Structure prediction request, 229 residues.
Amino acid sequence: GEDVEQSLFLSVREGDSSVINCTYTDSSSTYLYWYKQEPGAGLQLLTYIFSNMDMKQDQRLTVLLNKKDKHLSLRIADTQTGDSAIYFCAESPYSSASKIIFGSGTRLSIRP
Amino acid sequence: DTGVSQDPRHKITKRGQNVTFRCDPISEHNRLYWYRQTLGQGPEFLTYFQNEAQLEKSRLLSDRFSAERPKGSFSTLEIQRTEQGDSAMYLCASTEGYGGASTDTQYFGPGTRLTVL
Prediction:
């Protein structure tokens, strides 16, 4: 089946690193994504990783993929107040080149 | 081009009424998707179009829901005889749809928030 799981909340201190974790079930997933959603706004694509990659880095963002354990993580370095949002992990199942399966989202809050 | 646009942004209706939402994808994008997002959940896939052809529909799309993309550009999503359970954010996304991560990446619009009283 197709399912994506994430923890619901994460609180970090400003300036620290945030690590948001995700597990998925479809081993045939081709692409895995991280989207950001701020209050009242649409989904913003942050980054994606192809299933044959282990890591991808883009400025403050680092994505790690453990395909064996079906585990995906997003690390945000030097977390800022502007990073407060809900972060969605998502997968694109090989069985369907169309839809994306989303997790329920992790709400990231920043402490001063 | 400023991205995917959706209209209206908010819709309040009474139970039993029909509503129609519009989505304008990014120009030249062949694929268009509809998702529904309820409070505290991630978006759930409803349906998608390749140009004007509707190629996949979720089981979530009951008989009261219909989507069209008549000219392969904008799309409409209609809900007939709305129910309170239809209250949600309806999101539209588009992609170039030629294959590969960059062209298959879905870009989302701001959504239409539906409230059924």
Notes: Chain B touches chain A at residues 4, 31, 33, 40-45, 48, 55-56, 58, 91, 93, 99, 101, 104-111 (CB under 8 Å). The two ends of chain B are 36 Å apart (CA to CA). The longest strand of chain B covers residues 88-95. The mean pLDDT of chain B is 91.
